[in-house]
Design goal:
The protein has 297 residues and is an alpha/beta fold. It has helices spanning 26-32, 52-64, 84-96, 125-142, 163-174, 182-191, 196-202, 234-247, 263-296, and strands spanning 17-20, 39-42, 67-70, 102-105, 108-110, 114-119, 146-149, 177-181, 208-214, 217-220, 223-225, 252-255.
C-alpha cells in the first residue's frame, strides 16, 4: 500500500505507520503480507548474534523494509559505566541492517547487574547533566544521533524538576532526538494527575524522530500499568490525533509485546494509524494549497 508522504517527510528517518517486530510475527507477516505497515521496529538485543532460520528471516525483512531499532539494555541513566563493548557491537548491527534510527528509554535498568525493569531517573539538574553526557558518548560511539523515549514511571524519587522540564532539558543538553510515546503520556497523566494535552504541547516537537502507540492495563481507577499487551484505547488515539495536530504527521508504530492477536487484527490497528496520518496529511495539503491560492490572488 503506497501513501502520500507527509509534507515534512524529509526530516524523519522513516515514514508512515509501523509495527514492532516480534519473533512470533516473522511467519505470519511473511504469509499475510505487511499491508499498511511502512516500517518495522526491532529490539537489537533480541537479534544481535541470532543465526539459523530466524536470523535469515530477520535479514530478509531488513533487506526489504525500512527498520528502526528500540533498545532495551543501554541503561542511559544507570549508575554503572556504559557498556562500550555492547555499543560497538550495536553499531555494527545497525550498519549491517541499514537501521534508520536507534532509540532508547529515558530510564535505567542496571546497577552492577540487570534489574529487568525500567527504573525512573530522578528529575534533577544533576541527572540532566549526567544523562546528557552519557548520550553524547553513545552518539560518538554509534556515529549517529539517537532518540530518547519519554517513559512511563510510577514514582518520582528526589524530583526537583517536573517531568516535562526534565525531558526537555535532557533533549536540549544532549542534542538528541525524541521518541514520542503517546501511550506513556496517557499513562503518566492518569498516574501523576496532570493534563496530557498541556504536557504534549510543551514537548519540543522539532526533535521528534518517530512515535509509539500501545495498549495498557488498568490496575485501578488511578493506576495504569504500561503493558503493551492490549488494544489501544480511545483516549490514547485522541492524544495521537492531538499530536499530529500540534506537530504535523510523524512516523508512528504500534507496539504489541504479548497477548498478540491474529496478524489480520493487529494490522487493523496499524491501519488506524495510517488513516489518522492520511487525515492530517490531507488537512496539511489543503492548508498549503489555500496559502498558495491566497498569495496568487
Amino acid at each position: 500500500m503506497h501513501r502520500n508522504l507527509p509534507v515534512n517527510a524529509g526530516r524523519y528517518p522513516v515514514q508512515g505507520a509501523g509495527l514492532g517486530l516480534r519473533r512470533a510475527l516473522l511467519g505470519p507477516l511473511r504469509s499475510h503480507g505487511l499491508g499498511p505497515v511502512s516500517f518495522l521496529e526491532a529490539a537489537p538485543e533480541n537479534w544481535m548474534g541470532v543465526g539459523g532460520r530466524p536470523g535469515r528471516e530477520f535479514r530478509e525483512f531488513t533487506s526489504e523494509v525500512p527498520f528502526v531499532c528500540h533498545g532495551l539494555s543501554l541503561s542511559i541513566g544507570g549508575p554503572s559505566p556504559l557498556d562500550e563493548t555492547f555499543l560497538h557491537r550495536l553499531r555494527h548491527f545497525l550498519d549491517q541492517h541499514d537501521v534508520r534510527c536507534y532509540s532508547e528509554h529515558l530510564s535505567y535498568c542496571t546497577d552492577d547487574g540487570h534489574l529487568y525493569d525500567l527504573m525512573p531517573i530522578p528529575f534533577t539538574a544533576e541527572a540532566v547533566e549526567y544523562v546528557a553526557s552519557r548520550i553524547h558518548r553513545v552518539q560518538d560511539i554509534l556515529e549517529r544521533r539517537i532518540a530518547i523515549e519519554n517513559v512511563s514511571y510510577y514514582a518520582a524519587p528526589g524530583a526537583e524538576l517536573s517531568e516535562i522540564e526534565f525531558i526537555s532539558a535532557v533533549l536540549q543538553e544532549a542534542d538528541c532526538d525524541l521518541l514520542l510515546d503517546v501511550n506513556n503520556i496517557y499513562v503518566n497523566s492518569v498516574n501523576h494527575r496532570y493534563d496530557a494535552l498541556e504536557f504534549l504541547r510543551a514537548l519540543p516537537g522539532q526533535r521528534i524522530a518517530y512515535g509509539h502507540i500501545a495498549g495498557h492495563y488498568n490496575e485501578a481507577q488511578d493506576l495504569i500499568v504500561d503493558t503493551h499487551g492490549a488494544d489501544v484505547i480511545s483516549g490514547v488515539w485522541n492524544i495521537l490525533d492531538m499530536a499530529y495536530e500540534a506537530f504535523g504527521v510523524f512516523p508512528t508504530l504500534l507496539e504489541r509485546d504479548f497477548n498478540i492477536p491474529p496478524v489480520k487484527e493487529l494490522l487493523e490497528e496499524v491501519e488506524l494509524i495510517a488513516l489518522m496520518q492520511d487525515k492530517w496529511q490531507d488537512h496539511a495539503g489543503s492548508f498549503q494549497q489555500n496559502r498558495i491560492e491566497r498569495k496568487q490572488a
